[in-house]
Amino acid sequence: MIEINKIYSGHALDVLKTFENESINMCITSPPYWSLRDYKTNPVKWSDGWKGELGAEPDFNQYINHLCDIFDEVKRVLKDDGTCWVNLGDTYGGSGLGLSYGVKTKGKNSILKTTEYLPKIAHSRGKNSKSLLLIPFRFAIEMMNRGWTVRNVIIWHKTNVTPSSAKDRFTVDFEYLFFFSKKKKYYFSQQLEPFKNSTLARCKTGCGTNKGASYRGLNKENFERLQQRILNGEIKGRNVRTVWSIPSANYKGSHFATYNPKLIEIPIKAGCPENGIVLDPFIGSGTTALVAKQFNKNYIGIELNPEYIKLALERINGTT
Ligand SMILES: C[S@@+](CC[C@H](N)C(=O)[O-])C[C@H]1O[C@@H](n2cnc3c(N)ncnc32)[C@H](O)[C@@H]1O
Q1: Which CATH number applies to 6-91+132-191+240-316: 3.40.50.720, 3.40.50.2000, 3.40.190.10, 3.40.50.150?
Q2: How many Å lie between the centroid of ligand 1 and the Cα of residue 32?
Q3: Could you report the per-residue pLDDT of 43-66, keeping only the tens digit for each?
Q4: Where does CATH 3.40.50.150 sit in the chain?
Q5: 2, 16, 91, 159: which sits with the fewest CB atoms below 10 Å from its CB?
Q6: Which DSSP category does 148 fall into?
Q7: 213 pLDDT exceeds 70?
Q8: Ligand 1: centre distance to CA 99 (Å)
Q9: Looking at ligand 1, which atom is closest to the CA of residue 286?
Q10: Among the listed residues 227, 217, 280, the one whose alpha carbon sits nearest the alpha carbon of residue 70
Q11: Alpha-carbon distance values, 120 to 94, 140, 167, 222, 226 (Å)
Q12: What pTM value is reported for the model?
């Protein structure tokens, strides 16, 4: 029996295996990205025999397999009308090595003198060095191979991105949020955003009807009726678009990879029915739980680092 509104401590794969089939409404999460950060979690033993932290695999294909093994379990525990939303960033070949993993690349203890990171070094010096590795898309394709339907690729346009020192490419100011469904038919509460001023102005002047005659196949009369319904507020907005401009999180606590609560508001409102359950298998500082509670949904979190669980519980209980 799963307990709701609880954060489970442990490796996502192991904990998910204890949950019943088809018991959860939606999943939203941001897993560790490949070769980017060390979350100081205990090494995990994977089914291919490799032991280590998710994201620290020497090869990104192995990382994607590990990640998708976890999402296989997410699929099993999701209800058949469930959806799964995954925020994932990309990595440049050769860029992560020795930065956040705290490993030395020079001196006596240099990783060049150990075997543990050699495959990664070989990779970083190989033909993909300096290239974007397109990991989010490799992941999404593997999710498709494993039966998920990709419904949208949402661009999280970060409005306050840190300037980059690169002078031979542009500064990356977005990440991806993938929206998958378990089956072709799924629970989805349509979300609306305000009409653009130019749309409202066109409705007022009636201008655009010629062009609009082909709008959704409507004739001039029906198109004008539609414009009237927009103007008198009967139609409250337009279907939400797929580029979302939201700053990075400004969380001041000791977790350095939180997402902005705003990023997950729309997915949670769209994907979780009243009193439904939102799952986050990598809950970190508890952002998913906070937003789920805010919109009267239940949550279930999983986290491997006990320090982050403490942090999340303090946030959820309002003590920080
Ligand atoms: C990108 S962070 C998630 C941050 C979260 N969205 C937030 O707003 O705080 C990824 C989290 O996954 C946790 N983690 C890493 N490997 C894990 C595993 N095998 N099982 C469960 N959690 C894991 C890390 O400790 C980290 O807190």
Answers
A1: 3.40.50.150
A2: 6
A3: 999 999 999 999 999 889 999 999
A4: 6-91+132-191+240-316
A5: 159
A6: -
A7: no
A8: 18
A9: 9
A10: 280
A11: 8, 23, 25, 61, 58
A12: 0.90
